[in-house]
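At this stage, I put together one protein's amino acid sequence and its backbone structure tokens, which the following lines show:
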Amino acid sequence: MPSSPTTATLPIVQAQALGPLWPTVDPFLFCAHHDDAYPAGNGAFAPAVSLEDRQIGSDFSRKDGWSMYHGDTVPGFPGHPHRGFETVTLVRKGLIDHSDSLGAAARFGGGDVQWVTAGKGIVHSEMFPLLNATEPNPLELFQIWLNLPARNKMVAPHFTMLWNERIPRLVHRDAAGRATTVTVVAGALPGAPAPLAPPPESWASQPEGDVAIWTLHLEPGAQWTLPAAQGQGTRRMLYFFVGDSLRVGPQDVDRHAALEVVAGQDWLLTNTGASAVECLLLQGQPIGEPVAQYGPFVMNTQAEIMQAMNDYRRTQFGGWPWPEQDPVHGTEARRFARYPGADAEEQPPKA
């Protein structure tokens, strides 16, 4: 594992081991990688095994390779509030059921991305229904929290879906024909189609934000040049989480790690191992404002946190229009989104 170099020409500023929560830099607040080997379901969306010895309501045990989180029968996160930031959820495997206080609902997965601007306040649930009653129900996702600048912390909440089929990808083959695939959730990438539009009040929508969210897949031996960020002062984290070894410029990384890399230069990435390498990249221009956080509220001052708590007690951020705190959207492995009002989208089911 490389140490923090003092030479400006080395790409890796610092390297940190990957734990349950991955380290982030401004403008990002939080990054969690959930990788749960859920068993077969019981026909009612819950695990068909005993939940004994789990702390139901707050189970992060990873017992048998999975957790119930805050769910009591269905795994996941029943209704809970947010204010002052955004959640970006990238699903690699499995399906998630979303419901919120705007009346929006969705079932998504298999490469889809959900982007929610909490703004002045939203309540939502994220449940992981186990639809398959005869085989395991693996689930893997990233949940990323992106901060909002003070001027946008009290904007109207917003919910959108970025469907897997529409997300731009760049496939690059090096001189030996080995492929690197870059999936562009946010942020322009030279050679790739234009990214889908993030929510209108997002820091990712501001030209000065220089926000990028990419996933990288490098075949064994593949080489690809990570292009320099556009903004001066942009910070960049490269999370190496799958594979044997990775070389960033001249520096070798032999274990999974969160790598803060110099953003203002191009760096050649090389998969030096025998298996595929996968990375998540988060970058952005720092917002550079004070951060006051209390659980699901992220503001600039403690007084604003107290106001958020009082507002939620008083208004429930508009109330909860669902009969349960943990809604599940049926037995079919369909992908859909129903937006506030009448608009709805239906996507083909994942194979």
In short: The mean pLDDT is 95. Residues 12-50+68-325 form a domain with the Jelly Rolls fold (CATH 2.60.120.10). The first helix runs from residue 302 to 315.
